[in-house]
Amino acid sequence: MSLGVVTGNVEEEVKREVVDFLIAEAELLSSHKYAEWLDILTDDIDYQMPVRITREKEKDQLSVELSKKFHHFYDDKKSLEMKAKRLLNEYAWSENPPSRLVYLITNVRIEKGERSDEVNVKSDVLFIRSRRDEWEYEFLPYQRRDVLRKVDGKWKLRKRFIIPLPSVIPLRNLDNLL
């Protein structure tokens, strides 16, 4: 597969379904179909992007340090619904006219989750946004740590934890990172 998929302990069918889910989700977001995107979230969704901290590395310290107190966003279903509703509103100045978006997803790693109806999915994403007639693009590389849950025979996003590569986010706004 072109996404660079590695699976630990899941069947080929689950691998295919998860990759199809990730591609379909990217299409919904890049097409600004936020109402439809909300339908692929579980009601108990946990959606967050903590602030990345840059410090001098000490002996045996992890290379990724994230704030436990500060987040770029920390959302549940209700707050995501409010964000989506605002983006679909004609007065959403940050998205008028709508941005052109691309989500490049690669290095997908899939493993069985804690529950029998869940899988853990790690992936690397390159978010690219073009606004208006500007010649410069906005880029944000990040890693996602997702939990997908099978609900009524379909995969839904239960948890998303976004780890940005940069500590300073090089975007004008985070509206499209729903």
UniProtKB/TrEMBL annotation:
Keywords: Dioxygenase, Oxidoreductase. It comes from the Archaea. This is Aromatic-ring-hydroxylating dioxygenase subunit beta. NCBIfam families: PRK10069.1 (NF007479). Pfam families: Ring_hydroxyl_B. GO terms for molecular function: dioxygenase activity. CDD domains: ring_hydroxylating_dioxygenases_beta. InterPro entries: NTF2-like_dom_sf, Rng_hydr_dOase-bsu. The lineage of its organism: Archaea, Thermoproteota, Thermoprotei, Sulfolobales, Sulfolobaceae. GO terms for biological process: 3-phenylpropionate catabolic process.
